Amino acid sequence: MLENARKYERDGLKQIPEGQKPSFHVCAPVGWINDPNGFSVYKGEYHLFYQYHPYKTVWGPMHWGHSKSKDFIKWEQLPCALAPDTGYDGQGCFSGSAVEHDGKHMLMYTGVLNKVQEDGTRLLRQTQCIAVGDGVNYEKLDTNPVITGDFLPEGSSREDFRDPKIWIEGEDFYAVIGSRSEETGGQIVLFTSQDAKNWKYAGIIEESRNEYGEVWECPDFFYIDGKQVLLISPTEMMADGLEFHNGNSTIYILGDYDKGNHKLIRERVAAIDYGLDFYAPQTLETADGRRIMVAWMQSWDNYLTPPSFQWSGLMTVPRELHVKNGLLYQNPVRELENYYQKEVKYDAVTINGEKEPDGIKGRQFDLTVEVEARDYEEFAVRFAADDKYYSILRYNPKANTVTFDRTYSGLRKDILHKRSINVKEQKGKIKLRILMDKYTVEVFVNDGEQAMTSLIYTPLEADRIRFLSKGEVKCSIVKYDVAAE
Ligand code: FRU
């Protein structure tokens, strides 16, 4: 099965038109990808796996695809790493994570068993499994699964029990796993082990308490800048102001960790990213102690892939995380700057109506605009534009909102195309950074205090950028072209 997938992928890769894929974002090789998996450092290189169905551009029996990089920006495609080919994972190798241990690369993932039994009833089980390898080839343990639902306390679901995030602390292995309580919705359970084969249930570190969704998928749990952070992707969330939107969302819970009782003491719950296409983030720690996050840049609710594409799904740019003033900040990894090409800079621009400054255009760029937060009606950046198409980022200083709108980006479906966030000025200014790589739009507000990630599949010829205002606006503009080819 793995060999079939590898062959299919090798052949398929040759058929993707050159230049079609973004340049510095990990994309599906062929077929479909979703969540990032196994984001880890192994032998000094960054490995990124992903949920993968090579045979179609829609979700199907989950394999693990695989890429690696030395710097988070230039990625090398590796052969498919896992296929759903055993009794315990025959219906899917679901999401998971990885660590380096004893010179080996260890993957921990969820095996899915979903079968109609002889008596006609369906048996659905999600269990946790281990595969060990050398950075290219991985072997599943004979003793898999290493954690089954029988380890869970009464009331925790055995059917929604998935997405282990493994880490090593001292001599011990730890894993947080997403689950669901029948009564209170999403929960994250903690397991510990001394050898990664025999695991013990330790406790429930956090729960939805019926407030933040039904199943808590894809947890990550780490300490950074003096705080403990839990990242979660809850299903079936309900909208709350501009903070949370309906459906599959991503949230972080920040607080202190009571290690003895395995409890996260909650201080803040907020959205990780406010865009239209962001889910299932996962992090790694670099050798120099940076916490880097990557997420699936697509959403379960909006399928936008153009019918002519033979690949669907891509990852965000890896982002460096920090906690500052009780908030989670994120910015593209600094390695991106090594790929900056032409710089265009305007220190003091006055916009009253419309302006298209010389040298400001393209579809692969890192653009930062700093605008005064004064008494005008609106400031906007209109990009990926030609006479027919555009996407737009609007800042309304009176309402203190930033809105991304892709209505006229060439969509042919009546799906979600617009989302707003509340923003705060910083010393009388708002900083908007837009990172584009052909179809990807990653917006960072005020040095990463908020992020908004969305996709647009506008034809690549639409590459004009224009600044618009209702009232007089003063701003500064810096733009770099970026390419990793
Ligand atoms: C999240 C998710 C995970 C699961 C995987 C299946 O997007 O639903 O919970 O492991 O996708 O592909």
Secondary-structure map with pairings?
Blueprint lengths: L1 H13 L16 E12 L2 E9 L9 E7 L5 E8 L10 E9 L2 E13 L5 E12 L4 E3 L21 E8 L2 E10 L3 E9 L5 E9 L8 E9 L2 E8 L16 E8 L4 E9 L7 E7 L5 E6 L14 E2 L6 E6 L2 E6 L7 E12 L2 E2 L8 E9 L5 E8 L5 E6 L4 E5 L12 E5 L6 E9 L2 E6 L4 E6 L8 E7 L2 E10 L3
Parallel strand pairs: 1-19
Antiparallel strand pairs: 1-2, 2-3, 3-4, 5-6, 6-7, 7-8, 9-10, 10-11, 11-12, 13-14, 14-15, 15-16, 17-18, 18-20, 20-21, 22-33, 23-32, 24-29, 24-33, 25-26, 25-32, 26-27, 27-28, 29-30, 30-31
Beta-D-fructofuranose binds next to strand 1, strand 5, strand 9, strand 13 and strand 17.
Protein described:
With 485 residues, this protein is an all-beta fold. The chain has 2 domains: 2-13 and 25-332, Glycosyl hydrolase domain, family 43 (Tachylectin-2, Chain A, 5 Propeller), CATH 2.115.10.20; 340-482, Jelly Rolls (Sandwich), CATH 2.60.120.560. It has one helix at 2-14; strands at 31-42, 45-53, 63-69, 75-82, 93-101, 104-116, 122-133, 138-140, 162-169, 172-181, 185-193, 199-207, 216-224, 227-234, 251-258, 263-271, 279-285, 291-296, 311-312, 319-324, 327-332, 340-351, 354-355, 364-372, 378-385, 391-396, 401-405, 418-422, 429-437, 440-445, 450-455, 464-470, 473-482. The strands form 7 sheets. It has a 6-stranded antiparallel beta sheet, with no helix packed on it. Strands 23-32-25-26-27-28 form a 6-stranded antiparallel beta sheet, with no helix packed on it. The chain has a 5-stranded mixed beta sheet with strand order 4-3-2-1-19. The longest helix is centred in the first third of the chain and has 13 residues, at 2-14. The chain is globular and about 70 Å long. The two termini are 32 Å apart. The model has no long low-confidence stretch (mean pLDDT 97). Beta-D-fructofuranose binds at residues 34-35, 51, 62, 94-95, 110, 162-163, 217-218, 279-280. Residues 34-35, 51, 62, 94-95, 110, 162-163, 217-218, 279-280 line the site of beta-D-fructofuranose.
